[in-house]
Amino acid sequence: MFRSKHDRLFFISLLPASIAITGVLILFILVMLSKSYESINTFRIELFTKSVWDPENERYGVLSPVIGTFVTSVISVALAIVLSIPLSISTVEFLHGRIRDVVSSLVELMGGIPTIIYAIWSLNILAPFLKTYVMEPLHRYLGFIPLFSCRPVTGLSMFTAGVAIGISLTPYVTSLIIESYKLIPTMYREACLSIGATRYEMVKILLSLSRPAILASAMLGFARAAGETTIAVATVGNAISVSMCLFAPAYTVSAIIASQYGNAGLYLYAESVLYSAALIVLAATLLLSFAGLSMLTRWRERIVV
User: In this structure, which CATH number among 1.10.3720.10, 3.40.50.10490, 2.40.50.140, 3.40.50.300 belongs to the domain 47-303?
Assistant: First the structure.
């Protein structure tokens, strides 16, 4: 395994950090489980099948924030993928020289902007815009569809939160797609061009080859979107309700934790309930992250020949 004594010593020097990180993750999960046990043991399955937040009477149900988390994450990932694929193709295939550098720098700059900036912009600019030009027309003309059946009142809703988080997620997903797209061996491009394929046809073939990587990027993006807090608190509407309508205000798990954790210690079960809600999101994000990274790793091993 080790070719020399120095290799063995180098490996041993890396072990403490590796063990420490793994230990922190395990400890983190154990703390979440222990903190959640009290509320799960008390309220049992009703904790996850009801939507109620009434600390005064010790009545809780986290169905609404869990559904809100998954709905906003699906919207954000869908938007991020729709924006990221054209941006990635343009950057890799069509832009050259200084223009490519400028676009790449702008994407990296967007990825480095603090989420509080996205939150303020979304609250004051994006939400009113979506309410006037997207949500109200959809409700007016397609209100018979359950997804658009409720009239938007303030513009703060699951839809707005999903769009806002999706915009902030786009640089991250774009970087993953660009990295994967660049890993496709040059021989595939040469093969396409050698048989007379147009640039459009070549891109279609390369995209089909990178489909597993795009799916893995979506999974990793979902895991990141599910934990977004600042943007969600500002734009989701913060209401305990379950609705099929995307324009209804709701809660996400991260938003309800940020809003209610400060006072949760004053009540018997409130803090434990918040840990239980966070535990669901943690489990989902860990599974998706593991699945996405595994898929991405297998794809890279298969495509890079």
Answer: 1.10.3720.10
